[in-house]
Design brief:
31% of the residues lie in helices and 19% in strands. With 293 residues, it is an alpha/beta fold. It binds S-adenosyl-L-homocysteine. The site of S-adenosyl-L-homocysteine (SAH) has 23 residues, from helix 6 and strand 10.
Amino acid sequence: MGHVRFSRRQYVKSAGVVALVGAGPGAADLLTLRAHRLLGEADVIVHDRLVSDEVLDMARPDAERIFVGKARGNHCMPQADINALLIRLAREGKRVVRLKGGDPLIFGRGGEEAEALAAAGVAFEIVPGITAAVACAADLAIPLTHRDESRSVTLVTGHTKHGTLDLDFIALARPGATLAVYMGVHSLPRLAEGLAHHGFDLTTPAALVERGGTRQRRILTGTLPELVMQAPAWSNGGPALVLIGDVVARRAMANSGECHAAGTTRPGTDQLRQAGADRRHRSNAIPQRPVPA
Ligand code: SAH
């Protein structure tokens, strides 16, 4: 599939086109050049709550803007209706940008929209965006992977179904990996519980980053149990991501506006590294809890 060019000729000749565009974490200068171009050309922008005004302001001033949700537990428009809306706008010959926070294909239902467009025979393109895990890691100045410390990074959702956190805790509890938890602030106690139940070392460094990749970003560091204790009072209600892993102790620099969950000051990077090294040294001796069948 070639890249979508919202040219007038195409617009007149065929039905419209939809670009599923990643808006990144919020800062306009973290948008891709392609996203920027398409925003400047689109007739209609269909966007989510997570898309910042800063990014929306890149759209043509006369472009129509349609807000389609979603806040936690408050879906503005059902997914089927969003799919139908995109198809209808394209069939009207519009150049549509479907703008989603971060990357459209990571916990963004972009895949479902792409499938619906394909099934309806509507031309579309997907434009990647900087996903929250990547933006938050950059804010923390930590590597998501590290030759010695973390050979993999797993993106999981902390979203619960009927109050249950349906995750593969056995896999997630394995050491030597980085965990990025999206939509996980409310279910943090259940995450910590599930991991601990499967032998996860609860002294592993962790961080909570709110509004990562924006000027309003806030960072809370500590162990998972410390974050569980502090997060409710600390949270401002903005989108937040939990990063867990030894890499969190590998911070290359101090960040302003940061809190440490266990006290008023953040331990120095050297202290964190030493704690991580001590813990890794001990970890073989930590008895693993039995895994329930
Ligand atoms: N498609 C998006 C994720 C959508 S799910 C992406 O690729 O980033 C929504 C969740 O993403 C939020 O609950 C939060 O956990 C995370 N998130 C989105 N933007 C964020 C930001 N700026 N800072 C921290 N977490 C963010």
